[in-house]
Structures are given as C-alpha cells and as structure tokens.
Amino acid sequence: MVHDIRLGMCNTLNPVLLRASSLRARWHAYCISFETAYSRGFMNHPSADDTQIQATLSRIKKRYIILSGKGGVGKSTVAVNLALSLAGRGLRTGLLDTDLHGPSIPIMLGLVGYVGTAEKEKFLPAVLKDGKLKIMSMQFFLQGRDDSVIWRGPLKHGVISQFIACTLWGDLDYLIIDSPPGTGDEPLSAVQIAKPHGAIIVTTPQAVATLDVRKSIDFCRKLALPITGIIENMSGFVCPHCGGRTDIFSSHGGEDMALELGEHFLGRIPLDANIVPLADNGKTAVDAMPDSIAAKSFSAIAELL
Ligand code: ADP
Fold first, then answer.
1. Residue nearest to atom 24 of ligand 1 (CA)
2. pTM of the entire structure?
C-alpha cells in the first residue's frame, strides 16, 4: 500500500511517478502495471484536484489539443513543429505529450535519455530553447525506451491531470497538447481537464484517413470543444531529384472535408523525405531545415494560433 504523500499544492502527487522521479530511480515493469497500481492503493487518489488544475490553467493563456482519427498521420510531428515555431518567436510554450502508451515527442526532440524528476510539489519539465519550450511526457518516467505502460481508465486520467496541474509550467503563452489517435481515454481526459481553447485536427489527404477524422470532429462537437481548424499533412511529394510532384496520399482530402463540414482549413504540409530521418535523430523541420516548404508551412500555421 502506498501512503498518501502530502506535498504543498499538489498534495497527492502520483506516488508511483513521484518515487520514480524524486529518487531519480527508473521504473521497473511491475511498477507500471495497472494491477500493481491498483493493489497498492494508487487508484484511490490519482487525480490532481480542481483547485490545483484551475491555478495552473489560469497561468496558461492559450491551450490547443492536437487530434487525429488515425495514427501515423503526423500528429506528433505537427505538435512538435508548432510548439517549436511558437517558442522560436519568443513565446513561452509548453508541450504536453498525453500519449501514455506510445510517447514519441521525446524521440523527436532528442530527449530520449531525459529522466523525469520532481522538486517539492512539482514535476520538472524538460526545457529547450532557452527556457521558452517546456516538455512533459510519460517517456521521462520509463526505465527504457521499450517499456510499456499497461494502464487503463482512471490511472490514465490521474496521470494526465497531474501532468497538467503538477508540472512546473510557470506562466505560458501556449500549451500544445499532443494526444494519441482516436476518441478514447487520453484525449477525453485532456479535454475535460485542460479545457483547450481549440482543437487542431491533423489528417492525411486520402479518403480512408479523412473518414476517421470525421470522428474527431464529431468528438469535438459533442464535447463543445471549438475546432480551430484542420491540417492536411503529407500533402503531395515533390521529388528532390526531378522536381516532379506526386500526390502519394491523394490530394486535397483534408481541405475538401473542412469545406464540406464548415470547418476552418489551417493549411497543408508536404510529404518531405527529410522529415523521417530528422525525427528519428531528434531533429525537427522547423529547426533543421527552416527554409523548407514544410518548415515554412508549420510556421505559417503557428502564426494563426
Ligand atoms: P502520429 O503522431 O499521427 O502517429 P507521427 O507524427 O509520429 O504521427 O508521424 C508518423 C511518421 O511520419 C513519423 O516517422 C514522422 O517522421 C513521419 N512524418 C510526419 N509528417 C511527415 C511529413 N510531412 N513528411 C514526411 N514524413 C512525415
């Protein structure tokens, strides 16, 4: 049984995360199984309370959640590049990775080895861009890159609430929240807790992907979450050798859907062969190839937020 750990504002900081962070110990597989967390009484006090959440939200001017109906459409890529574009303009930006089972933000930002820590009552985020960009992710608390998080329901809600309320964000101009695809636990908790000002929906142009995105739109409408707009990613490939354009994933599907559903179209990002190797090596389009069409498209969209 884990005892309540009373700590200033966030007086029920997730004891499993806290132990991992304050002792700088890494988790073992058994620490992150749902059953173990349940048997240790962790389920009884998993969430930050409303006062903590309100206090944190009152210090964040604008909050956006990135959604997609499908995995692999570039949601995390968009989240990272938008956050970097905002931070690059000197805006204080937070990037919260609520993909608890498949966090990829740390890999994309070269933060794989970063170990989550807590100081007094708060989790310390990773910090980049001279303090302008603060990042929090479940990956920071895992022992190894391949460790899985075997959680469901209330545990996930609790950790997301604590990542929002008990991370030392300070005053932020923007909080960008990346979420796993679909309309399940993580986006639902993030929306209910962080009360975003808007949702940014990412799709690829082909019909199969846009079909799933319609569900994300429906999700926003049912939760009364304003839709900031739709981004069409991987939209056309310009061959670096011959200059010819190929619409590998069809074209204009995201824009057509936005038009049809009366939603705002934020812009399109081309399929750029450099983005995958960059991301795999902890680099981003916005930082590593600022003159590319992709980087300029990310920056132009960030200007709209
Ligand atoms: P999601 O978060 O939707 O699962 P990711 O952002 O992880 O998607 O992207 C999936 C893969 O596609 C990654 O390898 C990423 O580097 C790559 N990718 C994303 N956007 C582009 C793009 N515009 N051009 C080329 N590769 C991209």
1. 271
2. 0.88
